[in-house]
Write a structure and sequence with these properties.
- The complex is a heterodimer of chains A (about 300) and B (about 230).
- Chain A is about 75% helix and about 5% strand.
- Chain A is built from 9 helices and 4 strands.
- In chain A, strands 2-3-1-4 form a 4-stranded antiparallel sheet, with helices on both faces.
- In chain A, α1 crosses α8.
- The radius of gyration of chain A is 31 Å and the shape is elongated.
- Chain B is of the alpha/beta class and about 230 residues long.
- In chain B, α3 (about 95-105) crosses α4 (about 110-125) and α3 (about 95-105) runs parallel beside α5 (about 140-150).
- The longest helix of chain B has 16 residues, at about 170-185.
- Classes of the chains: A alpha+beta (about 300), B alpha/beta (about 230).
- The interface of A and B includes residues 202, 207, 211, 216 and 297 of A.
- The complex binds adenosine-5'-diphosphate and magnesium ion.
- Adenosine-5'-diphosphate binds near residues 13, 38 and 39 of chain B.
- Magnesium ion binds near residues 41, 42 and 162 of chain B.
């Protein structure tokens, strides 16, 4: 068995070399597709992350009734947390709120004068952010049910739009990745098929001496996997280089954005290797299928 | 060992290649199959290799009804036979050694067995010095001897040769048939299709003649050449 394995792997490499033009063509096509897929995925990840960040900027203010004492407000907090989907919850006292307003108005002296000593008219509040923005409305409605809550600042329109954009980005990203995968599979299959003309002789001889279907298939499979792995590694190198260069450029220009590469490079690597191997091996198996299906093909091509 | 029982073969396009064909070949026989071009000789061999199925009738080889073989049984059935082709069918970018070794490797034999067996069989066909040559560096006769070595390498009980001397010059042709003869003497059944009557005459073996898909002559039991 060991010598068979060695033979099959060597045979895979020999085929690669014999058909090196086609092998390089397959790799080229696969690398292009992997790069496009990878870019689509990375852009989509960054847009999602930017959306999340924008969402955090839009905390909901939960205003408490005038009669809520310090002790009562603690129980309200517990009740809000019990609703679930709460990421952060922060108490904003009427004094804090007043100071914040005053600082925004500080340019306009007459307004400041007019408003001084009105702090007691402002309610105490909780500033709340959510884990999952898509459940924004449900969560807000549940919070509204809680007693002693006077009012919840409701920005559903904005959140709705955010969620909409996020969904579109994910769906379009998935479609692009899916279509590119099909395209690359199609091109690889046809590239390998072009080499079949040369290999018909070998397949016929293998059949005539009694090689099993799997023994005939395996060198092709090895070949497809090598093409896939190689393409995956090259694509990973290129994407890593571009991403690191781009993110250092972007972060030095803007303050926000760009998900750090260190947090997910291994997902990109595994994704590329797996997709490459899958495309390569499926391409091989699809191209050879026709030649194994019939019992003939021994005495003539 | 081989039995054809009322075999008909009609191809999809309507060509009737064999009609009511019945034949028995015993283990250890050497049989020439002759007949003009298009008479159905290759069809007969294709049915034996189970490349094609008969339209009706039954073919039995070593107790196996070929019609009952499943796709996954075929490799193991084919390991019992060695096939020699008119156009040699050698792989151009493999050496003589590798072309012969290929037949062992693709059925999963160990490289140790390959190293032992290939030189032995190349010796049988007198090609040990050419082991490192590529097919294009050999004459037609030498290429066919490689084909013969490849057919022999897995110890088949039956050798099937479809016009093995068709692309070989006459002097070499005699040599090839003589080798088949020698192989037969060691116990292997040999079936050889040819339309070179001069060759057939030199070897006093059983001769079967096919015309228009029908068996028209059978010399019967072979003349014992070595007696
Ligand atoms: N795959 C095929 N499809 C259709 N007709 C075929 C096929 N193979 C052979 N034939 C026809 O069957 C007849 C017998 O062919 P064949 O067995 O090759 O004859 P031979 O080997 O004696 O020259 C011929 O008329 C040939 O054209
Ligand atoms: Mg023929």
């Amino acid at each position: 068995m060991l010598s068979s394995t060695k033979y099959l792997i060597r045979e895979g490499f020999r085929n690669l070399w014999t058909n090196r033009l086609m092998s390089f063509a397959s790799m080229g096509v696969l690398i292009c597709c992997l790069l496009l897929m990878g870019s689509a995925a990375l852009v989509s990840v960054n847009i999602s992350s930017a959306m999340g960040w924008l969402g955090d900027q839009n905390a909901v203010m939960v205003f408490l009734g005038d009669d809520v004492t310090a002790e009562l407000s603690d129980s309200v907090k517990t009740q809000i947390e019990a609703v679930g989907n709460i990421k952060t919850i922060e108490f904003v006292s009427r004094e804090d709120a007043f100071a914040s307003i005053m600082s925004k108005l500080s340019d306009d002296a007459s307004m400041v004068d007019a408003l001084s000593d009105t702090a007691e008219f402002l309610p105490n509040a909780y500033k709340v952010t959510f884990d999952d923005l898509s459940r924004f409305e449900v969560t807000v409605d549940q919070i509204k049910q809680i007693e002693k809550i006077q009012h919840v600042s409701d920005k559903r329109d904005f959140v709705k739009r955010l969620n909409g954009i996020n969904k579109v980005v994910s769906v379009v990203g998935l479609w692009i990745v899916g279509m590119l995968f099909v395209v690359s599979l199609f091109i690889i299959t046809n590239t390998i098929k072009l080499t079949m003309y040369v290999r018909k002789l070998e397949i016929g001889i293998m059949k005539s001496v009694g090689a099993t279907d799997w023994f005939i298939r395996l060198p092709f499979l090895v070949e497809g996997i090598i093409i896939g792995l190689f393409s995956g590694i090259v694509s990973f190198g290129l994407v890593t280089y571009v991403y690191l260069t781009a993110s250092s450029a972007v972060t030095s220009t803007f303050t926000i954005g760009i998900v750090p590469y260190s947090s997910f490079w291994w997902i990109v690597l595994l994704g590329f290797l797996f997709t490459g191997m899958f495309a390569g091996s499926s391409g091989s198996l699809i191209s050879i299928r026709k030649y194994l299906k019939n019992d003939g093909g021994i005495s003539n091509d | 060992m081989i039995e054809f029982r009322n075999v008909y073969k009609t191809y999809d396009n309507g060509t009737k290649a064999l009609r009511d064909f019945s034949l028995r070949i015993n283990e250890g026989e050497f049989v020439f199959i002759v007949g003009s071009s298009g008479s159905g000789k290759s069809t007969l061999l294709k049915l034996l290799m189970r490349e094609e199925l008969p339209s009706s009738g039954e073919i039995i080889v070593a107790g196996r009804r070929l019609s009952t073989l499943r796709h996954k049984d075929l490799p193991f059935y084919r390991r019992t036979m060695g096939i020699v082709f008119q156009d040699f069918r050698l792989i151009p970018n493999m050496t003589v050694f590798d072309n012969v070794a290929f037949a062992m490797r693709v059925i999963g034999m160990s490289s140790k067995a390959v190293r032992k067996k290939v030189p032995y069989v190349l010796g049988l066909v007198g090609l040990n010095e050419k082991a490192r040559c590529y097919p294009k560096e050999l004459s037609g006769g030498e290429q066919q001897r490689v084909g013969l070595a490849r057919a022999l390498i897995n110890n088949p009980a039956l050798i099937i040769a479809d016009e093995p001397t068709g692309n070989v010059d006459p002097r070499m042709s005699f040599e090839i048939v003589d080798m088949l003869n020698e192989i037969n003497r060691r116990g292997t059944t040999v079936l050889m299709v040819t339309h070179e009557h001069s060759l057939v005459k030199k070897f006093h073996r059983r001769i079967i003649e096919i015309q228009n898909g029908e068996l028209v002559a059978d010399s019967g039991p072979e003349v014992d050449y070595y007696a």
